[in-house]
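F.,

This is the one I mentioned.
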């Protein structure tokens, strides 16, 4: 088989960028991205794409209508494709067995059933979504149970490692492409077909192949390791705040060991994003199902430490503001889970803002890319509040950082957007109530300069000169 047509089911943060880059790099392949959401597809076909991702607009403009198509006609795209990516969402289950931990595979199953129903020729079906180990087996079972005469299937695992905000670069210059398949002549041939697609732009030595289960587990493992580094550094940030050590200095010293390396050691208010928590919970669930309770407990700690970090940061804001934020005006700068994305899934800002609202604060929220409706939807979600109307009254959304911070008691910086580093903080200080506080949850600001302006500054993993030592551990520090 020579791959001429590719279909991707799911036009989200993964399906959209992945297929756009594939279309860019493989002009000889027609790539059709389909989704059941009419709105999403309409946005992909418009000038305002449904996701903000640096460099994506240019790639889409170059390929759309040439060999890249976005459509809701799922059946036709499946029927015509030689190779089908499943890039649908795999959220944490919210009910039933494994609720709150296991991955909900209903969308993957739905996609597999659609393929089974529609396909009239042989297909290579590729799991791009992040799934539990052995999910490929379930897909194959569904396909084989509905197999039509003359139609054969090969299932491959090809997990995606892109990070939001850097997706285009991650896709064009991938550290590695991982392909898992069956150890049979058919499986190996399918692996070769997919390798051929990637070889249009990724050199062969960076395309690694393995068995399907290793590939599925490697994806969960990679996310778990990345998140573990953040939780490790964040755990030590608490020690720094209590002792006078500086977490940036510790991270530098540790990261210069070439065996450890410097990446993913940035202490923060906590990690967010749609995947770290979901994928580790999924790993924990798999371990528990396998009776590997010690392993499950080990990985659960990564999540627990992240929850602790988010709560600890929010509590510090409240404690510093004389232990009450009731009726106080607080500016939240940044709502996305990281810079250069408009995505708020599991954003630490939601947790911090939710806790401040619960304590009666009035929030002024500004983010350069997140839609206002999204912020309100996140803050009025039942997991955050039982009183959505109160939240609506106590949250004002702004289009610029200067109006957002004016007349506030404190600024809480939750996302590391570059523009926050360059703001005119003297102007902001002059417009705020005094004492004016800044809580830098990302360690990106010039704290010395801010203190000189007059701000009381607090950050993660460093005790600044004016930081008040809470009474509970003042005695330990003196010793
Ligand atoms: P998403 O929610 O942004 O997109 C998924 C899309 O699939 C939605 O638009 C939904 O409407 C569509 N969909 C679901 N069922 C469908 C069906 N039966 N037919 C047609 N469309 C259907 O999700 P995402 O962030 O793109 O993540 C997708 C998968 O990739 C997840 O498993 C995730 O863990 C994994 N992943 C995500 C990232 C990331 O940065 N977001 C990175 C690597 C891997
Ligand atoms: C992450 C992984 O980096 C990708 O490889 C993976 O494909 C993806 O999850 C996925 O499976 O969805 P993403 O969540 O988009 O990508 O973004 P990251 O850059 O990993 O950041 C995740 C969170 O960790 C953000 O909130 C970020 O601010 C935080 N972070 C990151 C830190 O707090 N400190 C760091 O040093 C790095």
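My design for it:
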């Amino acid at each position: 088989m020579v791959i001429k047509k590719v279909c991707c089911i799911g036009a989200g943060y993964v399906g959209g960028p992945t297929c756009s880059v594939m279309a860019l790099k493989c002009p000889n392949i027609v790539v059709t991205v389909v989704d059941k959401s009419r709105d999403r597809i309409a946005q992909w076909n418009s000038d305002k794409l449904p996701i903000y991702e640096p460099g994506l607009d240019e790639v889409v403009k170059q390929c759309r209508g040439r060999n890249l198509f976005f459509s809701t006609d799922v059946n036709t795209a499946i029927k015509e494709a030689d190779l089908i990516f499943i890039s649908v969402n795999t959220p944490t289950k919210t009910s039933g067995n494994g609720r709150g931990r296991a991955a909900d595979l209903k969308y993957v199953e739905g996609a597999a059933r659609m393929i089974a129903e529609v396909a009239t020729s042989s297909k290579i079906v590729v799991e791009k979504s992040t799934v539990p180990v052995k999910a490929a087996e379930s897909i194959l079972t569904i396909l084989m149970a509905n197999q039509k005469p003359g139609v054969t299937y090969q299932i491959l695992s090809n997990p995606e490692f892109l990070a939001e905000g850097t997706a285009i670069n991650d896709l064009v210059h991938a550290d590695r492409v991982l392909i898992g398949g069956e150890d049979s002549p058919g499986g190996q041939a399918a692996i070769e077909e997919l390798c051929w697609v990637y070889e249009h732009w990724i050199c062969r030595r960076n395309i690694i192949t393995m068995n399907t289960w290793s590939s599925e587990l490697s994806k969960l493992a990679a996310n778990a390791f990345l998140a573990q580094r953040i939780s490790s550094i964040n755990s030590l940030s608490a020690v720094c705040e209590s002792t006078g050590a500086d977490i940036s200095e510790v991270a530098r010293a540790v990261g210069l060991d070439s065996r450890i390396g410097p990446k993913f050691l940035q202490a923060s208010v906590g990690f967010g994003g749609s995947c770290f928590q979901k994928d580790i919970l999924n790993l924990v669930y798999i371990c528990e199902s396998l009776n590997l309770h010690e392993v499950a407990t080990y990985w659960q700690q990564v999540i627990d430490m992240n929850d602790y970090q988010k709560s600890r940061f929010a509590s510090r804001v409240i404690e510093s503001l004389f232990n009450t934020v009731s009726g106080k005006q607080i500016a939240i700068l940044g709502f996305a889970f990281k810079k250069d994305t408009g995505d708020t899934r599991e954003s630490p800002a939601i947790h911090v803002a939710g806790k401040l609202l619960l304590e009666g604060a009035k929030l002024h929220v500004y983010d350069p890319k997140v839609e206002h409706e999204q912020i309100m939807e996140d803050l009025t979600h039942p997991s955050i509040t039982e009183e959505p109307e109160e939240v609506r009254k106590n949250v004002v959304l702004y289009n610029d950082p200067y109006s957002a911070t004016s007349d506030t008691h404190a600024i809480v910086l939750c996302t590391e957007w570059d523009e926050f580093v360059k703001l005119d903080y003297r102007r902001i200080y002059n417009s705020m109530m005094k004492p004016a506080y800044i809580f830098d949850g990302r360690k990106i600001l010039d704290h010395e300069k801010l203190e000189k302006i007059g701000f009381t500054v607090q950050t993660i993993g460093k005790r600044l000169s004016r930081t008040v030592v809470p009474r509970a551990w003042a005695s330990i520090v003196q010793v």
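Residues 55 and 169 are 9 Å apart (CA to CA).

Talk soon.
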